Amino acid sequence: MTTVRPLVPSADLRTVLGPEGAATLDEMAATLRATPASIDRLFPAAARRTARGPLAGTAHRIEDAVRVELVGAVASVRGPADLAEELRLLYRYGDADEKRAVLLALGGIDDVAVDARDLLLDALRTNDVRLVAAAMGPHARRLSAHDWRHGVLKCIFTGVPLAEVADLDTRADDELRAMVRRFADEREAAGRPVPDDAAALLTPRAETTTAPEKA
Questions:
Q1: What domain range is 144 assigned to?
Q2: Single residue among 76, 99, 115 that ends a domain in this structure
Q3: With pLDDT > 90 as the criterion, what percentage of the chain qualifies?
């Protein structure tokens, strides 16, 4: 009923997992399509049953990609409201790795009926840079302008690169820049360096000029 974009192409993930790991993932996905409620058991076990570690060539981890695919299997047979509730339960009872995977899965859902901004706000109240970065992905478009601006500031405070923030180019406004300017002024007054991302956000973009055509 709802589509969840995978973190990496499914074929690439299965190549990384190898034949045994790929077969296990396919088996878990089939189980979830038949019995979606089993996500509460399979989601935490995903890393142990398949693989874990950095996913070469990406900023993701193997277990994140596996868990996002499992969410995709549930989403294919669950309505938006039921899917959102499943994700809330996975987040509430999950460890930090599982919470991050839930947030990443939310970022791959285009269905506007799935609204889990409450999970994003919870993640932004932590100081876990992995959760903060994942919370400011594409699902953060559902945050109010106020909450989104504070999310950007949280990234700056915690050292999350602003490249991780979805829609920064289109959502950054004068109010955000004023907030960042106050932050930068406080840092400078205290003799502390201003993060490069903050300085870049405050730097006016050079206007593109067109050279006059020669006669």
A1: 118-204
A2: 115
A3: 90
